[in-house]
Here is the input.
Amino acid sequence: MAYISYISGPVVRAVLEGEAAKLYELAFVGSASLVAEVVDVSRDEAVLQVYENSEGMRLKEPVRFSGEMFSAYLGPGLLGTVFDGIQRPLNKMGEKIEKGTALYALDTETKYRFTPLVSAGERVGPGEYIAEVEEFGFIHRLMLPPDREGVVAYIAPAGEYTVKEEIVRLEGGFSMSMVQKMPLRIPRSFAERESPKVPLLTGQRIIDFLFPLAKGGAASIPGGFGTGKTILQQTLAKWSDADVIVYVGCGERGNEMTEVLEEFPQLNDPATGKKLMERTVLIANTSDMPVSARGASILLGLAIAEYYRDMGYHVALMADSTSRWAEAMREISGRLNELPAEEGFPAYLASSIAAIYERAAMVGTLGGKKGSVTLIGAVSPPGGDLSEPVTRNTRRYTNAFWALDRELASARFFPAINYSQSYSGYAESLKEWWMAVDEKAPALREWMLSLLQEDARLQKIVKLLGTEALPEEQRLIVEIASLVKEVFLQQNAFDDIDAYSPPQRVLKMASMIKTIQQQWVRCHKEGRIPVEVLKSMPVIEAFVRAKYEIPNEDLERYDELHERIVKSYEKLLQEYGR
Here is the structure.
C-alpha cells in the first residue's frame, strides 16, 4: 500500500512500496480519499497534485491509485448543470463543499428518451453515432468511443433509460451505457481539421465587423481589473450563435461567479426563446477553491466542448481567466521545486498555453458531421501590462486579440475594446462570407479601420491643442471618427435593440457613416460649409437615435434614413450656394 511521505499544500509525495503508478493517473489521497492526479513518477515514489483542500492531511496516510487517467464523465445531463473544477455537480453538494465528497457527475435517476440509429448485426466504426437522446429539446447524439469499433451484438430498443443502463454491446464483449469517460489531457480524435471560414457572430459590432472571430478559432481578451472582461464574456455567451456554451470560471472572485450562477438560469436564450442554461454548461472554480483544480477546470471544459463538437455542434468555450490558471501552475511548479523562468512562471508556460488553444478547431467528425470548438480566453495582466508572460504567450497562439482599455471602461464605453491595440487574423479567411452578405463589406471594413487609425494620429494633436487647431479637412476626420466610436463601436448591453446587431444592421450602419463622410466632404469642398454646421444637422441626431429605435426586424427604415441624409445635405449645399 502506498502512503504519504511529504506534504506541501496541494503537492504530495507518496512512497510506492512495490506499487506502480502512471503519469496523470487518477489517485485518492489520505483517509478522506481526496481526488488527486499523478504529475511525476520515479522508481519508488510518485508526486501528486491534490485537487481538494489538503488541510489536516498527515504523513503515512494511504494513497490509492485508480489505474486510469483523470477523466471527464460525458453523457446526457451535462447541459444546465453547474460543476466544480473536478466535475462534482455543485447543485447536489449543498451550501458547503465537504472535502472528499464523491458525487457522480451525471444524473443517474432521470430517464431519457432513447432512439437507436443502428441495428444488431451492423458494423460500427470509431466515433459513429449509434443513438439519439432528447434533452431540453436538444438532440444528444450518442457515439461509439473513438478507440472502439465492431459488430453490434445488442442495441437497446427505443424507450426511456437512465445514463447507467446498458444501451449497446459489441461482439467480443465491449458494452457501454450512455456515459463515456474521456481523459482530460488527451484531445478527442476527429477525421480532419478544416480551415475556419464561418464567423462566430456575437452581435457586437466592433468584434463581428472589425476584429472578427471564426468558428473553430481562438481569441484572447486581455485587460486589467475593472475593464469588463467578465461582462464581455457573459455577453458573448448570451448572444453568440454557438449551439452550446461552456463557461469556465477559473480562479475568479466568488461574487463574479455568483452573478453568473444567479443570472444565467434567468436569462432567456435569444436564439430559442428558452432559458440560456438549457444549452450551457457552467464550471465554477472560484479563487477560494483549491488552487490546483484551476488547471483541471479548463481541461474539463475542453473535454465537454469537444464532446459536443463531435456530435456536430458548434461550441463556444469561455475561459475566465487563464491568468489565474497560469498563476496556479506557477504555485504548483514552485512547490515541485522546478526551476522558475520569467516572472516565476515555469519554463513550460508557453507550451501549456499552446496546448490549450490548439484544441480550438473546426473539424470533420468521425461521425461524418462538421463541428467546432471556439475558445475565448480572458487574460488578467497585473496592472494592465500587456507585455507580461501570460498575455504575450497567449497572443502568440490566438488569432483574435481584443485588448480592453481602462480609460474606455471608466467612461462606461462598452465593449471597452481598444481598436488601436486589437487585431484579428481571421478577417481574410472570412472575407468570402462577408461578401456573400454584401460585396462592399470588406472595403467598408478597410475604410473604417483606416479612418480610426488616422483619427488616433490626430488625437495626439487634439489633446495638446484642441480641435480648433486642426484644419477643417482634419476636423472632418475627427468628427466622423467620433460618430464611428459613439454610434457604431459603442453598444448598450441593457438596451433591447442595441444589445445585438446582426450582420445586415452592421453593414447598414457602417455604410451610412461612410455616406455621411462623403456628404460632409462634398459640402465642405463645394460650399465651404463649416464642420459645426454639418454635424448639427437634425438627420445626424436621427441617425444617432436610430440604433435605439430601429429594431432588427425593420432594417428597411435605415434605407429611408439614408435617403433623408443625402437629401438634407443636398438641400444644405443649395442654400449655402445662394
About this structure: The domain at 441-577 is CATH 1.10.1140.10 (Bovine Mitochondrial F1-ATPase, ATP Synthase Beta Chain; Chain D, domain3). The chain has a mean pLDDT of 91. The chain has four domains: 2-69, 107-178, 192-425, 441-577.
